[in-house]
Specification:
The structure is a single chain. This protein is an alpha+beta fold and 430 residues long. 27% of the residues lie in helices and 16% in strands. It contains 12 helices and 14 strands. The strands form 4 sheets. Strands 1, 2, 3, 4, 11, 12, 13 and 14 form an 8-stranded antiparallel sheet that branches. The protein has a two-stranded antiparallel ribbon with strand order 5-6. Helix 3 packs across helix 7, helix 3 runs parallel beside helix 8 and helix 5 packs antiparallel against helix 6. The longest helix has 16 residues. The relative contact order is 0.15.
Amino acid sequence: MGTNLRALAAYVTTAGVLTTALFGAPPAAGAGTVPDLTPWQTGTAVAGIAVAGIGKGNGTVGGDLLAGHGIIRPAGIKPPPKTEASAYVVADADTGAVLAAKDPHGHYLPASTLKTLTAVTLIPKLDKNRKVKPSEEASNVEGSAVGIVPEPIYKIDDLMRALLMVSGNDAAVALAEANGGVKKTLADMNKEAHKLQAYDTVAKTPNGLDAPGQRSSAYDLALIARAGLALPDFREYISTKVAKFPAPKDDPKKKKKKKKRDDDESEASESPAPAYYEMANHNRLLGRYKGMLGVKNGWTSKALGSFVGAARRDGHTILVVIMHHPGGFWEEVAKLLDWGFAARGKVAPVGQLVGPAPDPKPSSSPLAVRPSPTPGAADAGAAKARGEDPASNGAGASTPLLIGGGVLVLLALGAYGLRRRRRTPGDADG
């Protein structure tokens, strides 16, 4: 455990239970933090870490240092290369260590990088071999499109490739329709974001087109991308350079015309249209940057440029996210990746990409169990039928001291307390 994480682990409540400094919980609006926790002073010197523009932490998801809006970087190594992006995160995707960041929890429009959340949400839900017929509405979505038509010729697999390779806004809506509709899909996406502890993220569209209230952060996009990299289909889609996409046979745009012969008497003829056409991945670093795995880029006039990228070298994966970049960012991203590979394993992390929140599990209160005056086989059987542990039945009451001279009771109390300490604050929220 690095210096920063040891400091974070010192964050405890009055009951001695670890707080969200390690596990994370929903943040206050606009801050990516959890209220009502005693803030850790991050303005003072922290061993091995240099911080610019940072103030007090407040239980920030991923570590209190990530509450800063300026550049957050480790000491003992050259600073990360400069970028015009308003926010960024450089992280070790394998360990989750955040190596450097700038305004990591700042809220920005995600543009098409939000499609990573669409994919992470829908890949486990939809059969990739299922064929679907997009609606007229899906076929006419504005912005970048792969050119679908309302015909039942597309597999989910085709639409996922179009979503992640060429940023098909039309493909995103068609996938949402296949999942039961746009409204249901947005609910699923926001639920998935909450599960990943990406609490800065609010999805209002399945394709990232700007919409009121929609937002994400560099930290959240890193969480989402890391979850995507754990899915084999996601990894395959983002790393594909060129793929075939179904084309309607009667689409005049896809018909190939033969050249008119010199003979005026001959008429131009048309060959049958192919059953597909080719689409190329929009990620310009794919095939050009050593070890590039891909992920997703995006742009709108309001969001400006955004990019999520991952590269793997020598068995290690570095993840870079930038948001709100005013111009060309490809060279800057490449340099940030280079810096990440150089810093990995050599510096104390400035934060951590947290894991998914555990599913909430019902727990019975010891006060709700009536203590048995004479514990025996019948009482143990009844306790098991209720789903309780007979050894801990009535923990906290005086009656169980009759069992085994009190030794078993102390063990049961310790086990119960350990279970309580392992619950994260996000459990109650689902």
